[in-house]
Give the backbone structure.
Amino acid sequence: MKILIPVDGSPHSLNAVGYAISLAAALSVEPQLLLLNVQRSVASGNVKRFINAGTIDEYERELGMQALYAARQALEAAGCAYQYHLSEGQPAAAITKYAVEQGVTLIVIGAHGESGLGARLLGSVVDQVLKSSELPVTVIH
Amino acid sequence: MLEMIQSTQFWVDVLKIILIDLLLSGDNAVVIALACRNLPETQRRKGILYGVGGAIGLRVVLTLFAVGLLTLPYLKLIGALLLMWVAIKLILPEDEGHDGEGIKAEAHLWGAVKTIIIADFVMSLDNVLGVAAAAKGNVWLLVFGLLVSIPMIVWSSQLVLKLIDRYPFIIFAGGALLGYVAGEMLIGEPLFSALIDAKHYMHWLIPVICAMLVLMVGLWLGKSRAEVVVRDLAEGVVSAGADSQGESK
């Protein structure tokens, strides 16, 4: 069994990690835990024109590793094995794509990531994942 | 001044300028942050300060130039054509795989500042041209456009990028708006004034044609607009109880 936990460093996404840890402990065969963080591309045409791709990737990687940090800490504290992955792109599309690639059984995701005006205008990532993914999704409040 | 504020046209122009500022604010903030990444901590703040200061300064200077230059003959024609190109560029998909073409994050303060100033110049040129066209020679509107764009230089307008990501039609609406404004600039060109005043419908027909032209050329050139791309940045495996070891690719 493979459980994918998309995280963005928010408290809600950490709740999802906590839930996945307790789920893992309850299962008779230890599931594989996969952490995923998706960075939206910071690079518009102009940014790409003036800053080289390596620097942009490095920057996004740094932001991604920061977003993963708390979740990794929690998993390591619980003694869980896991794998992590960083993607760049539209969050919902990247989550769905990675879930399919990895043959995930279940997606466990926090209810709110981004908040405020941004989320209102964009619609939440969770909504989009629910719409676009055919896999079972557990939403943690 | 009071009369100006009471007219509908004034508020339409204000709205146009805000939209153009949003679309063409450029990502000065992102470029500045990324160009200063490799600087030592103490110099980074300086680099960001100089970069932001330079961007604002450049925009002020370019705005002043725009006021003066656009009264000269032919320049509205040239400006309108340039603006059409800016509008088409806005619609066109971004080239992927720009590897190596961009400038490396500099390890020296002045190198970073140089990168920022060049980028600022290019981005400000687009912005000031768009705002100047929408302001139609009204100095108050030009200054207003300048003031609106400054917070977007200081704080990034990533929300706009995300919105475009989510609702791609925004970019087409923006391109059409810029095309329309370019058309308005074109009919302001003294060379054509006799022709345009003779046929009054030209006042709206030419901007509409320019907007449609931008959309058509943009769509035609960008036929192969790729769907949203997802890229892998890094991955790693951590076994139970082991120290985390990541590998990036």
Observations:
- The CA atoms of residues 58 and 121 of chain B lie 7 Å apart.
